[in-house]
Amino acid sequence: MGAALVLATLSPAQAQQVPSASVQGSVAQAAAAHLVSQHPGKIGAAAVKTVQATANLNLRSKPSTSGRKLALIPKGTKLTVGSTKPGWSQIRYAGKTGWVSSAYLRAVPKKTSKAIKRGDLGKSTVALKLRRQANTTSKALATVPKAGIYTVKKVSAGFSQITSRGKTGWVQGKYLKVVAKKPGREIYIDKKYTSNRAGLTDRYWTKVPGSDLHESVKGKIRIGDIPRNSVVYRDKKMEKTAGSVKGWIFVRTQGMSGWMKTSQLARKSAATTKPGKYSAKTVLGQENGNVPERMLVAIGWDKEKTLIAAPALKDLNRLNAAFKKKFGHNLDIDLAYRTRATQDAYWVELGPYVAARPGTSNHGWGTAIDVPETHNYSFRGKYHKWLKANSKKFNWVHRKILEEGSPYAEAWHFDYVGK
């Protein structure tokens, strides 16, 4: 062991200069083994794929100090091990393949996900089972979709407690990636679709055609075809959670949430409230979800100035006048015109029983309205009952496929059937 111990105390450069005869065979192997045992994290003959040089190393033509020097590898260089022999590793560097002493290679640790903690936002990396208790055998309450972002309420034995679509349960924490603690991040709102406004009152309107809704600040565009004069609601609570960024606000528009540049927004709608000259036939001849702005008008008596197809407005005004005479206030309009990119997003997130197949929704022509999902507008509500009995007089109908009991039931949706 004497020779091995002497070798172990030499500098890396000195160790590679020791004559071949003195380091071959069992002595060289013992020296390498001694170095590995004294320096945890360094490798010997084990086949480790990605490594880092802990000193300046000679790349040699064969696994021996007698091998010809091919290059000098700087300390800190990351290398890939091809194969190994006792005390030596074969690598490729600067276009040359050769051998280096394994004693001066450290395995590069794999990057591990930051352990999720209570209060963190965790993004699901796969679809997960939401379970009643913190184990893999308890009852599954629901399936949590991939890429959802959830606040972790508790952690226990490798499980994280979250709430998904109104159900609170446990998922395996290793499949929740901690959302970066940086401003302007993505926020996934995991709750059933209820309204465009979602209780928000801080209104803006888009002032440029084709405004963009981003998943995160300067990130991927979620919806990129929002027309001018579309109502936008600022969500300050979510904005604070996501991290405020100057020049951007977190909003809800078209029934979707994300980030918009303030430069694309105004405090007033500039849309006309006059029905215009276009016929329903002309509008229906346009590409679904891409109706020209000139064919869209704002509903004047609606605080949201919701956009709708011009020919549908006149009859909607008549319907509203009758509704107001009956109940003493205007109809509540949640949404009318919807863009194609928005419908695509709905189809992915809500599925076919809630969203129409992209390219087929009457919202895409601005010839449909949604009223809020409140009790009075529900199937048993007084507003819905009145609308169902009277809307046809004004060329607005609630289709049979949307009736209660149908898998496509929607009390809130009415279609325009006028000319």
Could you walk me through the main structural features you see in this protein, from its secondary elements to its overall organization?
This protein has 419 residues and is α+β, with helices and mostly antiparallel strands. Helix 1 packs across helix 4 (26-38). It contains nine helices and 27 strands.
Key descriptive features of the protein:
alpha+beta; 9 helices; five-stranded antiparallel β-sheet; single chain; 28% strand; 419 residues
Secondary structure elements and pairings:
Blueprint: H1 2-9, H2 12-15, H3 20-23, H4 26-38, E1 50-53, E2 57-60, E3 69-73, E4 78-85, E5 88-93, E6 96-101, E7 105-107, E8 121-124, E9 128-131, E10 140-144, E11 149-151, E12 154-156, E13 159-164, E14 167-172, E15 176-178, E16 203-206, E17 211-214, E18 221-226, E19 231-234, H5 236-242, E20 248-253, E21 256-261, E22 265-266, H6 280-284, E23 296-298, E24 307-309, H7 310-327, H8 340-350, E25 368-370, H9 382-390, E26 396-397, E27 413-416
Antiparallel strand pairs: 1-4, 1-7, 2-3, 4-5, 5-6, 8-11, 8-15, 9-10, 12-13, 13-14, 16-19, 16-22, 17-18, 19-20, 20-21, 23-24, 25-27, 26-27
